[in-house]
Amino acid sequence: MSGTRRTDEGHGRLGSKLSGLAVALGCVLFLGGFAWGAVVYQPYTVPTDSMSPTIAGGDRVLAERIDGSEVERGDVVVFKQASWGDLPMVKRVVAVGGDTVACCTQDRLTVNGKKIDEPYLPEGSAAESSTIPSIEVPRGRLFLLGDERSGSLDSTAHLTEAGNGTVPRSAVNARVDAVAWPMNGMLARPTGFEELGGTSEPGPLRLVLAAIVVGAVLVLGGAAYGPIAKRAGRRRDGRGTREQALAG
After folding, report:
1. Which of 18, 22, 204, 229 has the fewest CB atoms in 10 Å of its CB?
2. What is the mean pLDDT of residues 213-232?
3. Is 50 known to be catalytic?
């Protein structure tokens, strides 16, 4: 009997140490995940439907803080441009410095003479509600359109300004990775621009969420070990008492 009791106590001490380690590691992952996300991502509320159906008015998005030099064709970016109202806006980059953009050829946007497949546009809508003359995007600047072309105040509304409606890369603050509310998840990566060169990879949002979820599971699991172990111990003690009574 004494040997069994020492073994049980040893298992109990080991279990307590492991549960404490799980809680500590879980706290690091959980809090670290939130801290990492707060450093890398910025939440924004989109005020209009100009990016519908990809992003609707009132949706809350998570945008990775990046430098404008990292922006690629197809990215949905948050930017601020004085001549556009000097407020944070969300649009899609369809052409970068050195590109020639126009619309429309067979109802499709063209960049450097290539027709672009844009599955993110509203079903049945045209690539543009009005004609975009052939425009060469100046170096270091971006040409941006909303996914809801008929109601978006984008580069097409500023064609008469310096730069033909383009904005400097330095105006970009962040790149949208996901719609956080409602929980629509990660934005689909645009594939229509791949033939023109590199496209962006999503940020570390999935890793951030994984760290938070794993951390929460470890904290809850480690914290639950104590009550579960005590209940199991009481059951073993009860069984042992009954067995002794029967043997007696």
Report:
1. 18
2. 79
3. yes
